[in-house]
């Protein structure tokens, strides 16, 4: 798990020691060593973990354990007072009777990229100390919880150690969301520009690639008929589809899991039944085909459905913004609390807006858009059967690739709860438009192209493309699974073959396995699959390769955002990590 070149400290893993809380005088707490490379990672009795320097840790032999005499009997008042003020009590109190500071608990601590497993409780012989170690001046060992004020004072002397402690104090002490200082996309002006640009791109790309022409260098043809863009039946179909998925999402089947810890100190519950919703939706499509429902309506009214999705996304984002105006402060998104309406509306003013038990962001992220993408592809197969009596092999291959991709995302639906979209981004126009309009109506570009253009491929050529997609999936799923298991428990015996390194934030980062190749191997796998989806379209036109080109730009931008966030979070530890894992997305290239 650790680098052989790194310095191992004297106290071994598993050893019971005492740790000096930074910024305090005479406060030593019993704990256990869980890592001793360069700096100590310590686990306290309440399950919290901290990272401290060598000079802040002492062995049990340096202390004289105080034993209680059987003949001595404390009065009730004396017994109560001994919990917080008597000698020999080195364990932090959980809550004072006077409503004083609370000790961080495992439930209140923010979830980490590499949280520590829950240890067994230490015996009482580890809870008392009588005198400090010889190297330290004699102080009364008071069981007083360190305050944020004392930590801030100590941070001036030991910033690399104490700053993470400040950040990991109970969430209740700093749950209020302040004004957003760092803005993205050019601020309010950029957000207004993006609000207009994104729908323009969706229209332009789809209208530029038709049966007769497929190029970006010419203005796309437009009939000028309002009926091509606005259709009441198309609107009702879209709204019915959205309502159908919402009903499936709240039905009492599927696993209920907890999300990340919020500023309020609570966790939200999420019902993960997306895979079952996909199966039900595909079964409903099969029933519709059996009863000869004209599913090719989706192909014929594609632009009208797309217009409905765009308008619905904007209306939804406005409703979300006004809802957020009445939400408590701790429920807001830290990155979209500027006070500028356009910017906050675009980025998402509220972090986790809900209607009853339906979490709108979690729902829209995976259900109506992703499953809708699969349904659009199935309708395109039905159209190809009408046009050519049987679908082409390239079309079937791309539909199979994309359906499997969506099914995989829904099978591992719980994993999305740790992604940036759920934990950090508010739910506004950017995500709503991306989920409901951008994904289903742009990601199906390859399948629509294959319906309108005949592409001939030999079986060996298709086999190579299949292997390319399989390679991308193995990298994508393997790296994501490693990351998710490591976040749950970095000391899992199944991960002993992986190497990791500590950080000043008390968390560990993987530096081997898939995550030793580059810092974002999951992005690499995603891009390889994206290329495999476009190759069956041949090489006559560039537009079918829109998805991998756009996805490359998107993931590089997201990688830079991740890099900036991690640099702020881990400081010098991130620099050491980047020296170890040099490449960002493409090994030996970038």
Describe the protein's architecture and organization.
The chain is α+β, with helices and mostly antiparallel strands. Helix content is 46%, strand content 9%. The protein is built from 19 helices and 11 strands. The protein has helices at 76-82, 148-155, 159-167, 187-208, 232-250, 274-290, 297-300, 302-324, 341-347, 360-388, 393-411, 420-423, 429-442, 445-452, 459-488, 514-517, 521-534, 546-570, 572-580; strands spanning 16-20, 28-37, 39-44, 49-52, 57-59, 255-261, 267-272, 354-355, 358-359, 500-502, 508-510. A 5-stranded antiparallel sheet has the order 4-3-2-1-5. A two-stranded antiparallel ribbon has the order 6-7. Helix 10 (360-388) runs parallel beside helix 13 and helix 17 (521-534) packs antiparallel against helix 18 (546-570). The longest helix has 30 residues, at 459-488. The two termini are 26 Å apart. The model is unreliable at 1-5, 65-152 and 154-174 (pLDDT under 50).
